[in-house]
Amino acid sequence: MPQPDSWIERMAQDHHMIEPFEPQQVRAGVVSYGVSSYGYDMRLADEFQLLRLPQGPVLDPKQVAADDFERVRSRVFTLAAGSYCLGRSLEYFRIPRNVLTLATGKSTYARAGVFVNVTPFEPEWEGFVTIAIFNTGRSAVNLYAGEGIAQVIFFLCQDVCRASYADRKGKYQASGQVTASRI
């Protein structure tokens, strides 16, 4: 079952599940962020990466290196029409062993043609979240650092998994920045 605002707040305060943590839903003049009824709206950091490789017929995710990306820091990042970038969460997450999360993009951006892809946060994964952001529209779109980008929903599992992400020594464990594909 998805966990309510009271559980999210308790886990953030008592177990440092989300840092920094915003216990209220902040909405005035921004893309909202913070605790919602059954989720947490994570914020976008001011760190972005754009693929430097020239447009070609095939991009092999098994062959992309960190230096194939140009790093950009910006409070307002303009994402060109039909392009994508990688960003990261402002918050650092520590997922308990009996929890799995799913995240989905904020409706404010979806209504502007921006789609967000975030893979599930597995049990005992921790780090900053790398976020794939794609502008499907015909116009450039501004992305706002420090404001909401995606809502994270926390699912408390009845049984504890045999092997967590930490047990398997996952390749994205303790991510400290935007992280390109790793094989």
The rounded distance between the terminal residues' Cα atoms is: 32 Å
Query: How much strand?
Result: 35-45%
Number of domains: 1
Radius of gyration, taken over Cα atoms and rounded to an integer in Å = 17 Å
Mean pLDDT: 94
So how many helices?
Answer: 2
Low-confidence residue ranges: none
Judged by helices, strands and strand pairing, the structural class is mainly beta
- What fraction, in percent, of the residue positions are helical? under 10%
N-to-C series of helices and strands: HEEEEEEEHEEEE
Task: Say which CATH homologous superfamily is assigned.
Answer: Deoxyuridine triphosphatase (dUTPase)
Q: Give the CATH level 1 class.
A: Mainly Beta
Give the strand tally: 11
CATH architecture name: Distorted Sandwich
CATH names the topology as Deoxyuridine 5'-Triphosphate Nucleotidohydrolase, Chain A
Largest sheet: 9 strands, antiparallel
